[in-house]
Amino acid sequence: MQPDVALNPKYKETYPFSKIVGNANILIMPALHSAAISTKLMKTIGGAKTIGPLLIGLGLPIEIAPLRSSSNDILNLASVAAFSSEVIDYKNKKKN
Questions:
Q1: Are residues 35 and 56 in the same domain?
Q2: Is the pTM higher than 0.85?
């Protein structure tokens, strides 16, 4: 589903087979450049609150704060890393 359809309720009837309930709150992008562009547009124009980018699948709870991150952005990323350190058992992960 394209972002304009996911974010605009008037297009919901275009996808009557969709099992999405309510409004979209997560957008998955096909590549880093499209995600970066979309994120900055939504944050700047739409006033969206963003958390990320999030790193998934690493051997440790690590997050990267982008340039121009506010103190709230850094706190949110640190919270995600702290939460994942409690949820994921990194000690028993297979070492490569």
A1: no
A2: no
